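User: I'm curious what two different proteins look like when written out as structure tokens. Can you demonstrate?

Assistant: Sure. I'll show them one after the other, since each token string lines up with its own sequence. Here's the first protein:
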Amino acid sequence: MIELSNKKLSIRKQAKLLGINRNRLAARPTKTSEEDLKIMAIMDELHMECPFYGQRNFRENLKDHGYWLGRKRVRRLMQIMGIESLVPKPSTSIPAKGHKIYPYLLRKRTISNVDEVWCADITYIPMEKGHAYLVAIMDWHSRAVLAWEISNTMDSAFCVRTLRAALRTTGRKPKIFNTDQGSQFTGADWINELRHNDIEISMDGRGRWMDNVFIERLWRSLKYEKLRLWSYQTIPELRALTADWIEFYNHRRKHQTHGYVTPWSIYNPPVCQAA
């Protein structure tokens, strides 16, 4: 009954006349222009190079690429991408209604065993037409990627599916699960899944990218070693490239941290058979 194109009555006025809550109306999709996509691709590169950049730094650096943007537009694009300046901030932010923020449990803790801590994060991936989001779950000690999924929307559903996939395919669960304070990881669906599996919940301090540094390094490696060297136009093409690199990362990319062996050989070492 709401007429979006009615020039005489605003949506707010129509909702009031009909006696309905305007906040319950389906949100109109926001169109992302071709220029926005190009700008977000540049911002993604800047964010990987300098994760501490905020609105002002993005705006100034975009001038070098020929884009003169206002702070409101930069802020809107950062929100679409799901990125923020990764520097310590005062505790003045208010969590989403009904979302509890859990304490960070890993400070000064030595992680020396697999499945002691798992972590998860989401990264923005620019595409020629639109963009995508990638979520991955990693074992903190071995650095092995246990599950991942790509989506064209940044909601909690694909995060929960990835968590269930990690629990199912490994047949294990961590003692502690660490994430940032993003709404996907503070919402009821994600929290209830962890509680159902008796997993302790840990969350980074707001803006503290170092609290989840290993998975931040994973994103950097994936983008610089694979995605920025290959072209892809569709989600299936992006998914195939990501799958190829993560297989290489888990099973063939040797890590200096563990004496130049692969993450998967640490997470799931081969069984030595007696002679």
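Here's a second, unrelated protein for contrast:
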Amino acid sequence: MRVYNETLAHRVAERLMHIADVEEKLMFSGLVFMVNGKMCIGVSKEGMMVRLDPNGLENLSHKDGWHQMIMGNRPMRGYISVSEDVLVRNDELDFWVKLALDFNPIAKASKKK
């Protein structure tokens, strides 16, 4: 049983089709898009996780529908959640996908086990 928004996942996948190294992985109760071996975007039931430059959050104060992701009681530096109702507009989805892709080349890859 899939627990993520399949329509949103398909729309994200369409925006990543032009990138050579994209892998989809089921994890965190959703679908994660790995770009160049690094977590980039995740789709859940409620919306989308975006990995971005943590130093650029103040530049997003004008945008609606996002919040810093929290794990336990600690903020996850460099990860935000964007609500599904914002992402129904293509221009909004494009904005958030571009933000994640712009950060991806400088994002650190997870340590291989």
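A detail about the second structure: The CA atoms of residues 31 and 111 lie 20 Å apart.
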